[in-house]
Design brief:
single chain; alpha/beta; Rossmann fold; GMP Synthetase, Chain A, domain 3; 2 domains; eight-stranded mixed beta sheet; seven-stranded mixed beta sheet; globular; binds 5'-O-[(S)-ethoxy(hydroxy)phosphoryl]adenosine
């Protein structure tokens, strides 16, 4: 059974998926996709290695499933509906037939430029059709795409390009975001000064700004596309061949290149897209994420196209030209399913309601959220003002590592409850585990959220560092995958995600590790030490508070300058999303006797909850805490 149409379908499917997971996924795989060869084994796995193999022996190409197989029935249907940053620029409808030609041409360009199966290609593009087309072109020829969000700085880009040893970078002259025009190509140039692995840079034209082209490395994309052959046979991929690498922040050190493979990712994203969004043939579906994040990979590109959907791609931001932009687009394209992040909802809820009421939102059938916990107030605002109290608000919990949605109310089966992601999708077996690693079976409980059985789109490894994959996700608790999130389970078995239990902070839904930001700050010649913690923010969910110590005393004017320099450093090294909202200069940081910074105390101070600091008996320097508390911002 592919589509869950009511509660009893859900109950039946869920039960079947737990009793015989292999049979459950095999039936879905068998009946809904085009395979070049069928599998020999549905699943082989070993949590201790860890190793997960789905549909071993099968051969396929995901783009045949996303595009070619729709050509007969849906050739003239819009596959990608592109809405530009500037509302006066015309939108673009790319039909399945056109998408086929554009992906084939792009794939031939990649081949002509020396890209082969298994090569890594970094894509650093704004939200323009070429971004989706480039990812699909890579997949068509078996190259592994590594999309890097085009808001990342040159050093973040360089780190990702080098980690995967990418041979090629695909970028554009510039990008439009609201009233800004960003010079992407020069960011790439700066990054590539330290990336000897890159042989070729393809440059799309978007902003038509003047850019420097490095002879023998950089080529304009369009003339190559114009000259390319419009047919490109698919590369036959083994089920477990890597499809893409996508980086996510770690709580320590460099970003983790999560590796997703072909068959399992395909089956899982397609199935969850259909069921969570209940997509019907003529619907227009819109996810506002950027393809630089997993949400964009799975639910702008792959999931929708696998289902033959019309997927809207928006280049701009919710506030440009004004805060009504999202709703103007919903009205203009009669959007049926709308999927966004709590941060965007909270930002819009702060603005005048006339930005919403001006538009006809009656086409909407379903509203989704993702990326961070949604607070009740934001949920209700969304439900009432956008969904007219008719559309279910589907709170979807999942991660870059999980590849597809894991816990969410399937709207035909489960009535959504504010702040709860509710029940696991079929095939997903969550478990709450206490600090000793024991599963807590009782309803109404709280613990570390783990998943105790593999699902097809689980990331298979961290690129180049399987040990880190094992240490991060499979070592803290035995025989399960540890998510890094805490959760509550209520008496109905519904899950509510409470937030990260590690040193990752979600700022506007972006995962930021504290260690990489601290490492970056500590590079400043005047800074001795730093500790970053999160504190609640009305719009962003969390904001960043930095406690910094300096090597020699500075006066208040110098502090101001230092504040500016620290944020500039973060902007250059990581990207603007990691800038600190508050910086407090201190004479020392609270430490345990073994020299570890007591972040728990700093978190309480930053959250203005410093009345009771809990157990401070292991503190080496209590006087510092007093000082920090007295000067807190
Ligand atoms: C958080 C995004 C609460 C969570 C798809 C997770 C959520 C991290 C939700 C993954 C949600 C995501 N409710 N928290 N509905 N969705 N998160 O890798 O902490 O960018 O571990 O994947 O975001 O973020 P990532």
């Amino acid at each position: 059974m592919y589509q869950i149409k009511n509660e009893s379908d859900y109950i039946k499917s869920y039960k079947a998926s737990v009793e015989d997971p292999k049979l459950f996924w095999e039936e879905i795989a068998e009946n809904n996709f085009t395979w070049q060869r069928k599998w020999e084994h549905v699943l082989n796995f070993d949590f201790s290695k860890p190793e997960f193999k789905w549909f071993e022996g099968a051969q396929l190409n995901i783009t045949e499933n996303c595009i070619d197989r729709h050509l007969n029935d849906r050739g003239d249907k819009t596959a990608i509906l592109f809405e530009p940053n500037n509302s006066e620029e015309k939108e673009e409808h790319i039909t399945y037939k056109e998408l086929h030609v554009r992906v084939c041409k792009f794939a031939n360009v990649l081949k002509d430029q020396g890209i082969k199966k298994g090569d890594r290609v970094c894509i650093y593009l704004p939200m323009i059709p070429d971004l989706a087309i480039a990812t699909l072109a890579c997949a068509r020829i078996g190259a592994i795409h590594s999309v890097v969000f085009a808001g990342f700085s040159s050093s973040s880009l360089a780190a990702r390009v080098n980690d995967a040893a990418c041979k090629m970078v695909i970028t554009s002259d510039g990008s439009f975001r609201g009233n800004k025009c960003i010079d992407l190509k020069s960011i790439v140039d700066e990054a590539l000064d330290s990336c000897p692995c890159v042989e070729r840079v393809l440059v799309a034209k978007r902003t038509h700004t003047d850019v420097a082209m490095k002879v023998s490395r950089d080529i304009w994309l369009q003339p190559l596309l114009d000259a390319a052959v419009a047919v490109c046979p698919i590369e036959i991929m083994d089920a477990e061949d890597p499809l893409f690498i996508l980086y996510t922040s770690g709580s320590t050190g460099k970003p983790k290149g999560m590796v997703h493979t072909s068959a399992g990712y395909m089956v899982n994203t397609a199935y969850t897209f259909k069921n969570v969004f209940q997509y019907e043939e003529d619907d227009v579906y819109w996810c506002t994420a950027d393809i630089g994040w997993i949400t964009g990979h799975s639910y702008i590109v792959y999931g929708p196209l696998l289902n033959g959907a019309t997927t809207l791609m928006f280049e701009g931001v919710p506030s440009y030209p004004d805060w009504g932009r999202f709703w103007e687009i919903v009205q203009k394209h009669r959007v049926n399913q709308f999927y966004t992040a709590p941060t965007a909802i909270r930002a819009m809820a702060k603005e005048d309601l006339s930005h919403v009421t001006k538009y006809d939102l009656s086409s909407l059938k379903l509203l989704g959220t993702v990326g961070e916990p949604i607070n009740e107030e934001a949920w209700r605002w969304y439900h009432k003002n956008i969904g007219d109290e008719k559309c279910p608000v589907v709170d979807t919990w999942w991660q870059t590592e999980t590849g597809s949605i894991m816990i969410a109310p399937i709207p035909t089966a489960v009535k959504p409850v504010p702040t709860f992601a509710t029940l696991p999708l079929p095939g997903i077996q969550p478990v709450l585990v206490n600090a000793d690693g024991e599963p807590i079976e009782a309803d109404k409980t709280e613990g570390n959220l783990c998943i105790r059985f593999p699902w097809p789109s689980i990331a298979r490894t961290i690129w180049g560092d399987h040990q880190r994959y094992k240490d991060t996700y499979f070592s803290k608790f035995e025989n399960c995958y540890f998510t890094g999130d805490g959760a509550i389970r209520n008496e109905k078995g519904y899950y509510r995600i409470t937030g990260r239990v590690d040193d990752i902070i979600l700022v506007s839904g972006h995962n930021l590790g504290t260690a990489p930001i601290e490492d970056c700050i500590n590079e400043h010649p005047l800074i001795a030490e730093s500790a970053i913690v999160g504190f609640p923010d009305d719009i962003k969910g969390n904001a960043l508070y930095g406690f910094l110590t300096v090597k020699s005393p500075v006066n208040s004017g110098e502090e101001k300058e230092l504040h500016h320099q620290v944020n500039q450093l973060i902007r250059d090294k990581i990207g603007p999303i990691a800038k600190l909202d508050k910086i407090q200069f201190c004479s020392g940081l609270p430490k345990t006797r073994s020299g570890k910074i007591m972040r728990r105390i700093l978190r309480k101070i930053a959250s203005k909850d410093a009345e009771n600091l809990g157990d401070t008996s292991t503190l080496l320097n209590p006087e510092v805490v007093e000082q920090i508390r007295d000067n807190a911002l």
